[in-house]
Amino acid sequence: MLPRRLALLLPNALTLIGLVLGLAGALALQRGEVAGAASLLVGGQVADVLDGVAARRFNASTAAGALFDWHADCAVAAAVAFAAGVAWAIPVFVLVQAWARVHDERVSGRTAAMLGVVGLALGAW
């Protein structure tokens, strides 16, 4: 069993790792490095899933941690949408429509962005 202090830090550390990987993926996407972006975004998504698993497994869920996770997810989703818009000159209204559709269907923006970039990478490959 993990010491309590480490158990409380692990989910937030995984959220931070997911945030960094996701933002790096958005930057790679903006530069046109679709395969690299897909790899980074998948890694960020894995970290995002694992932070929740760790929080539940070690009974380390906190309101601050949940808020940090939510903000990290939003930051990555917005960065990927912005990067896609810059890289491919996607009109803003298309991004807004897609964003609204994602949230009506209860699919996280981060997951939708990651799936879109993986699809682009597979298409480019």
From TrEMBL:
<protein>
    <submittedName>
        <fullName>CDP-alcohol phosphatidyltransferase family protein</fullName>
    </submittedName>
</protein>
<dbReference type="InterPro" id="IPR043130">
    <property type="entry name" value="CDP-OH_PTrfase_TM_dom"/>
</dbReference>
<dbReference type="InterPro" id="IPR000462">
    <property type="entry name" value="CDP-OH_P_trans"/>
</dbReference>
<comment type="similarity">
    <text>Belongs to the CDP-alcohol phosphatidyltransferase class-I family.</text>
</comment>
<keyword id="KW-1133">Transmembrane helix</keyword>
<keyword id="KW-0812">Transmembrane</keyword>
<keyword id="KW-0472">Membrane</keyword>
<dbReference type="InterPro" id="IPR048254">
    <property type="entry name" value="CDP_ALCOHOL_P_TRANSF_CS"/>
</dbReference>
<keyword id="KW-0808">Transferase</keyword>
<feature type="transmembrane region" description="Helical">
    <location>
        <begin position="75"/>
        <end position="95"/>
    </location>
</feature>
<dbReference type="Pfam" id="PF01066">
    <property type="entry name" value="CDP-OH_P_transf"/>
</dbReference>
